[in-house]
Structures are given as structure tokens and as C-alpha cells.
Amino acid sequence: MSSRLRTLRLAATAAAAVALPLAAARAQDPQPPQPGVRLSGEYGVGNRPGVLVLPVAGANGDSVRAILMRDLDYGDRVTIIGNPNDPTSSPVPAGGSANYALYARLGAAAVVQPSLTASGVTITVHDVGQKKVLRTRAFPLVGAPNSPDWRMSLHGASDEIEQWITGVRGIAQTQIAFSRGDDIYVVHADGAGLHPITRGGGTAMSPAWSPDGRLIAYSLMTDAGTAIFVRQADGSGPRRVSPVGLNATPTFSPDGRLIAYSSGQDIGTDIYAVPVEGGSRRRISVSQRVENVSPTFSPDGHRIAFMSDRTGNPEIYAASVEGGSPEMLTQYEFGVHNHRTDPDWSPDNRKIAYQALLPGGFQIFTLSLRDGATQQLTSEGENTNPSWAPDGRHLVFASTRGGTRQLWVMDVETFRTRQLTHGGGAPRLPAWSHRLGGQPDGAAPAGAR
Amino acid sequence: MTRAPRAVPLLAIALALTAAACHKQQLQPATPQPADLPPTTSMVDSAAIRDSLDRARAAEEEAARRRADSLAMADRERELAEARAALLAPVYFEFDQAELAEDARMTLDAKVPVLVANPGLRLRIAGHTDSRGSDEYNVALGQRRAVMVREYLVQHGVDASRLDVVSYGEERPAVEGENEGAWAQNRRAEFQIVGGELSNMGDD
After folding, report:
1. Closest listed residue to residue A209, CA positions, set A241, A175, A238, A237
2. Could you give the ipTM of this predicted complex?
3. Half-sphere CA count of A435, side-chain side, radius 13 A
4. Does B151 touch chain A (CB under 8 A)?
């Protein structure tokens, strides 16, 4: 963390103290019923820099401001001054763009000042504590205003702003693929841009993103069997990369070269890996008459975790990609019929998320890769299929907590939760993409959270 | 060319038999006739009556044969339907299990003679699960159930090449619902004829 950021954080604390009456008043405001947003857990002000997003002049200025505010809010690393879902409620400081004294009184440690240009938006971020401009940069906006491409390019600006302010790049410029009905759909991380990328031909399940976000692998179940397919993330160019039979639960290796998946012919399945462009496959797990499914790579690509029922119960294991004996990660309890499935290795290499069957249905847990400690994250409704965001801090999962099964997003630091999808079709098996737009996932400094 | 020579002898035999029958009738002793009827007329009428009685008897026999045939056919159809039902009867499993319970083995035992009697038949065994387990694990579990069924039938003499397996996981429930009644009916292997005809009933 740069000294500037440390200073900014100190300033944030000071600003929060100054702004206490305002913050307290805001905290007492009842949350208006916002479709798709639910707060759970405390949303502290003092430990997150307050960020004020100034109004944006011009056509689509309101859209730009609303999207930036919501992106920064969903990142869960800053406190948006005002209601992120109702930008008109946000204060509009008089006295120009650099009234630092007023910004401080409003509780802002950073002020985001966007202005629309012919080709995009120029963002200036003010460091209120230092009373100076922190950064300025022009971001091109792609496509027609409010089109999916335009929104995705603006999300890239949000993520950059979050990096300037907190030192960690945001996750707004990402998408989530999932199964709904018999098809694979993709939705932006803010819930916009929902569209199918497969249409018919069987039951498409278990989508997985390539690290560069260009490809999506999935399994397709037909009367002839189940096979692994890959297509462009826009839905074009489907091709089969496995035999037809029992071939399911694909995942990409972190270098984007391999697809690992579960495959079996007689009794039992093992994990295999095949080059993305096709070719002969290599067996990774070697077992007899047991199931090994749902592989997930460690961020360095050297290890692979998966579900196996080799002890009789589905548990989570990890093994070297080069082979060797897998190690059970979940704690076997003698005499208890555990059922732990659907592992997903966090991009920061700290945890594996999975689901465990409890008397009322599945709930989502994390397992610490440091000490093996487990933590239950959900309890309301049934919660399944966790998938990590590239920040290693947010999870998307399927939940029945709202009455019907929908996709939800949780910040595992604060347990703040929001609903991602609405409407019918019972979405499931979500997969959060890596950061899209060309920025590497490694942009976040190690340990910054 | 091949039909004509065969047709001629058949026709000749038929004609000869007809002639013999006529001759025989003419040699029958005359039955007593009413006195007011001329003898020639009496002879002709007697032969006609006899002929008509013969025809009636033949028709009756034919009808009886048809009745018997149709009963036999109904029996056969019923037995074929039973064989089909035995062949296609699903088998059911315990939660998270692919082992074949006693009643599942009995259901499979009834399929073996049908498969043996109809060596041209090909079956697709489709493994299904209930909705409770992991969706992804259930794809594997459905396959495991289908393969366990195939292994059992192979052990009992059915050629493995006649038995396709496919898993539908929890994706094709037989019954909708989130209760034990629905789950129990969804944990199953189903059977479908994908090649050949069921023409012989099994012999148990």
C-alpha cells in the first residue's frame, strides 16, 4: 500500500469522525425496499473510506453517476455517501469541484468527479484529506449509451476508481454465467445484460469461464450422453472437446490451456484434463468405482480440488495436477453421513467454498486453506453452487431464501448480500468470470483486502 | 415362371377332390323321401341338403378355429404386453445409493428371460436421481445407477453390447415435488427399447 493510500485511510477515519452526525442520521434511515438489494450484517462507516460521486452533467450523466455509485457500493470496500440506489438523494455540494472542507463535513475521504466527453468519460478522484487531486484519467465508453458494451466499459472505470481509492481493483467489470432451464445464460455483475448463450439441443450445465473471459465451457446432456462443449462467450462457435458419454463439470486451468472435467465409462468417474483446442486427454485422478467430480484449480495451477466419494460420502479433496494421492480437505466425521460438494478454490488461494448437506438442505461453507477451519456462510433457505468473484471476497450462489431459487451475491467479509437475478427459470450453477476488459486479475496487491 | 408349374398341380388336385366329392354324394344310399316327390328331385334335394349341412358344419368349425385363434392371439398379445411391461418396469434406489435392493433385483430378474428370448432387442438404461443431492454429483450418480443395472443384467447372461446407459441426473424427474414421495419415485433407472422388436415372450 502506498503512503498516499495510508494517508487517505487516515483521512477517511478523521473524516468519518467529523461526519458522525451525518453518518448517524443516515444509519437511522430505514432502508427503502429496493428490488434486488438486501443488507445483512453491519455496514460500518468508520472502517471504509467515504466516497462521494458528484453529479454528472449532460445526457446520460445520471446513468453514469448511478452506475459508478452502485459499482463502488457493490465492491463493499468504500462507503457511498448517500443512497447508492437513489443518486438523487445524494448530496450535491455547492462551491465547485474542490470544496474540500465541505467534502470532509459530508464524510467523504474521496470525491469522484466524472465528466462526459465525446469519446467517453473522464474521471477525477480527489483526495479530501490531502486536499488535492489523486488521479485523473479518460476512459473510452464503447457502444451506444446504456448498451451492454457501454455499461461494461463504464464498469471498468468503476474498478479503476476502486483501485485508486482502496488499492484493490473492483469487480464490476465481470460477468456471471449460469444454467437456467436447459440453457446457459450470462449476466453482468450488477444484474444487467442478461442473455442466453446456448439455445436448446439438450440440457446445458456447469458453465466455466476461460481466464481471458473469451470462452465458456459447459456440459451438454442429451439422450446420447453428456459431453463437454466450448463456445465463445458471445455464444458463437460451439465445439465438443470430450467424448459423448459421461463427461461433466468442466473448469479451465489458470493458464487457460487446459479444461479439467469429470469422466467415466463404467462404475465411477475420474478427473481428466484436455487441451482447450482439443486433443488427447490426461487422467489426473486415478480411482476405482468411486465418483470424482467438480474439479477446481488452485490459482497457481499446481493443485486441483474436487469432490470424491471414495470414503463412501462426498467430501472435498485436493491433489497435485501431476497426480499422486489426494488429500481430504473436509473433516471426515466417523459415523456421520456427510455430503460436501461443489468446491470452488478462491482466486486469492485462501479458501475453498463448498456446499454441505444439512437437515434442511444444502448450505454454503468456506474452508480455510491455512488451518482447515470451516465457516458456515448461509442459513436462510437452501444455498448451493458457490463461485468466487476475482477479488476472492464475494461469492455468487443459488439460494431459495427469497421464495424461488435465484442467484445471490455475498461479501464474505461483512455477509452483506444482494440478489443478482430476478424472474423465473430457477437459475443455478453460477460461475463468476475473471476480470474482463484486459486487466489481469493480479492487479490487486497480495494481501490487500 | 416359378409360380405357374406349382399352380397347375394344385389346381388339378383341387378339381380331382371336387369330382370325388360329387361322385361320393351320388353313391350315397337314398334316404327315405316323401312319396309325393319325384325320385330324381328327391335325389337332388337330398344331396343339396347334405351339401348345405356340410357347409354349415365347415363354417362352424372355421368359426371355432377362428375363435380359438383369436383367443390364442389375445393370449399372445397379453403375454407380449406382460413381457414388455416386465422389460420396461423401472427400478428404484435409496437416497445417494446405486446398490440394487432386493425388489430392484426382482424387477431386473423378470427382464432377463425377455431379453434372452429377443436377442435382437437393444435397451437404453437411463439413470435418474432425486433433486436433493448436488446437481453435478447427481449426473455421476445417475450414471452409476444405470451402470449398476447394466452390470446386473450382464451377470445374468445379457450381452453388454445390447445395453446402452445414459444419465439424466436430476434433470428429468418422473414426479415434481419436494417430498419423500416424489423423491422416491425419481431415484430410478428407466428402460427404453432403442433397437429390434419385442416378438417373443420370455419363458420364465
Report:
1. A175
2. 0.84
3. 24
4. yes
